[in-house]
């Protein structure tokens, strides 16, 4: 969920939302097996409220103007350009599924690997925000459709494979996603996406000591990954390693000026 995504994900809203809306899957048992248990979302509707925020009149006017022009454009390149511009407007407004829809239109028009990747990543961004079960399934399928097109031409794109894996984790066959992530780490033990996602899934299933191991590896090889640094602190906290948690959260404070992250860190420090 490295962006492209996860996207420049908002910590306490998007990542935590995805984390607790996933099925509770034990990903790192001692015996190497995995157990699937029931879980339930604990996040409420905050991500959907952001997504459903109303558009300003100026934004609506710009979108209507571009949409009208799109409807009468026959040139493929111009059509793709207009669709991409519409996608950008929707994305800036927090309408990620609408942005993905227009990038899909552009991709279907010009059919290039770059356009498929943009559409697939846009659908993945929308997927990370979705809370409705049917919408999650729909956006996950769209993500796989377009990112798999890219993988067919470039099988070495493990960053895209990692995103596809995460869409399976929220499906009726979560072990397919876990297996894909394990394959990524077997091929590249330092892979940023693989380590991050396995750490997130370990947290989600309550395996905080396992999560610590994953995030320690992640920040060892990718110290600039602020999400990993933050989640390492959370994992220390949840596994009762309070001294390490305090030190880790203080380190995060020195790494970012993002007020949402700092507020989350402060809330944990107050509990230590």
TrEMBL record:
SUPFAM superfamilies: TPR-like. It holds the Pfam family TPR_Slam. TPR repeats lie at residues 192-225. Residues 171-249 form the Surface lipoprotein assembly modifier N-terminal TPR repeats region domain. The keyword Repeat applies. Transmembrane segments: none annotated. InterPro entries: CellSynth/LPSAsmb/PSIAsmb, TPR-like_helical_dom_sf, TPR_rpt, TPR_Slam. It comes from the Bacteria. Keywords: Repeat, TPR repeat. PANTHER family: LIPOPOLYSACCHARIDE ASSEMBLY PROTEIN B (PTHR45586:SF1), TPR REPEAT-CONTAINING PROTEIN PA4667 (PTHR45586). This is Tetratricopeptide repeat-containing protein. It comes from Aquiflexum balticum DSM 16537. The lineage of its organism: Bacteria, Pseudomonadati, Bacteroidota, Cytophagia, Cytophagales.
């Amino acid at each position: 969920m490295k962006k492209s995504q996860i996207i420049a994900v908002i910590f306490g809203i998007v990542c935590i939302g995805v984390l607790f809306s996933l099925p509770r899957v034990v990903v790192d048992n001692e015996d190497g097996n995995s157990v699937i248990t029931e879980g339930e979302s604990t996040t409420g509707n905050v991500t959907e409220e952001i997504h459903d925020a109303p558009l300003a009149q100026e934004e609506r006017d710009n979108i209507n103007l571009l949409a009208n022009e799109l409807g009468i454009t026959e040139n493929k390149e111009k059509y793709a350009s207009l669709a991409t511009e519409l996608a950008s407007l929707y994305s800036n407004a927090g309408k990620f599924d609408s942005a993905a829809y227009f990038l899909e239109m552009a991709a279907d028009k010009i059919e290039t690997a770059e356009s498929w990747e943009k559409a697939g990543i846009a659908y993945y961004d929308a997927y990370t925000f979705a809370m409705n079960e049917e919408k999650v399934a729909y956006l996950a399928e769209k993500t796989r459709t377009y990112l798999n097109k890219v993988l067919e031409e470039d099988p070495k794109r493990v960053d895209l494979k990692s995103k596809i894996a995460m869409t399976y984790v929220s499906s009726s066959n979560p072990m397919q996603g876990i297996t894909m992530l394990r394959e990524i780490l077997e091929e590249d033990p330092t892979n940023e996406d693989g380590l991050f996602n396995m750490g997130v899934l370990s947290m989600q299933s309550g395996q905080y000591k396992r999560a610590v191991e994953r995030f320690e590896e992640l920040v060892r090889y990718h110290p600039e990954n602020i999400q990993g640094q933050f989640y390492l602190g959370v994992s220390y906290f949840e596994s009762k390693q309070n001294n390490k948690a305090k030190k880790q959260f203080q380190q995060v404070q020195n790494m970012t000026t993002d007020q949402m992250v700092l507020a989350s860190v402060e809330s944990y420090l107050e509990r230590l």
